[in-house]
Design a protein that fits this description.
The complex is a heterodimer of chains A (111) and B (114).
Chain A: E1 9-13, E2 18-23, E3 31-38, E4 45-50, E5 55-56, E6 61-64, E7 70-75, E8 84-92, E9 105-110
Parallel strand pairs in A: 1-9
Antiparallel strand pairs in A: 2-7, 3-4, 3-8, 5-6, 6-7, 8-9
Chain B: E1 5-7, E2 10-13, E3 19-24, E4 31-37, E5 43-50, E6 65-69, E7 75-79, E8 88-95, E9 104-105, E10 109-113
Parallel strand pairs in B: 2-10
Antiparallel strand pairs in B: 1-3, 3-7, 4-5, 4-8, 6-7, 8-9, 8-10
Classes of the chains: A mainly beta (111), B mainly beta (114).
């Protein structure tokens, strides 16, 4: 699976959009980009995933660049409950199945 | 519906003792994964079960670690002769089975070895 790099930490004001970047410059054509978050003392929570098209669900939007070397997770209206560590994972659809987690981005939403 | 459940939620044990951690996957999910998360670290893959296939044990850190999955559902992770470095959160995840399927995680078991 491709290695991903993320900023160590970010702050966001409550009610504003939180934009979390992820670099996956070595991603291959069959690797999906997955986003999870982990709120303190809980298991990782699935947020969204995509291959090459932008995706949106009730939690977030995922914007993937045309060359697929980077992506951005957007939380449109961040709340205090969105404070968590956000993980970006590039995962193949064949051959491998385990997630390889990095250290993620620690997002702090400020009141 | 019910998510992945794990028990116990917390476990404190003495060095040298054996421990068993349990995972109940989402009903109907054929794939089950164990991960370990040490303090302040990302998740480390341990083992993967898929249906009746032989499990992938490539992530188990030593032969003190073993896991089984009986009846294709519940799984037990066993750590023998625990060491202090085994202290971590042990997370279980399940997925519907296809390799591209999303993994859903349980709340974890926090293991502290004194």
């Amino acid at each position: 699976d491709a290695k991903t790099t993320q900023p160590t930490s970010m702050d966001c004001a409550e009610g504003r959009a939180a934009n979390l970047p992820c670099n996956h410059s070595t991603i291959s054509g069959n690797e999906y980009v997955y986003w999870y978050r982990q709120i303190h003392s809980q298991g990782p929570q699935y947020i969204i995933h995509g291959l090459k098209n932008n995706e949106t669900n009730e939690m977030a939007s995922l914007i993937i660049t045309e060359d697929r070397k980077s992506s951005t997770l957007i939380l449109p209206h961040a709340t205090l409950r969105d404070t968590a560590v956000y993980y970006c994972i590039a995962r193949a659809t064949s051959g491998t199945y385990k997630y390889i987690f990095g250290t993620g981005t620690r997002l702090k939403v400020l009141a | 519906g019910a998510g992945v459940s794990q028990s116990p939620s917390n476990k404190v044990t003495e060095k040298g003792k054996d421990v068993e951690l349990r995972c109940d996957p989402i009903s109907g999910h054929t794939a089950l994964y164990w991960y370990r998360q040490s303090l302040g670290q990302g998740l480390e893959f341990l083992i993967y079960f898929q249906g009746n296939s032989a499990p992938d044990k490539s992530g188990l850190p030593s032969d003190r670690f073993s896991a089984e999955r009986t009846g294709g559902s519940v799984s037990t992770l066993t750590i023998q002769r625990t060491q202090q470095e085994d202290s971590a959160v042990y997370l279980c995840a399940s997925s519907a089975g296809e390799l591209k399927e999303t993994q859903y995680f349980g709340p974890g078991t926090r293991l502290l070895v004194l």
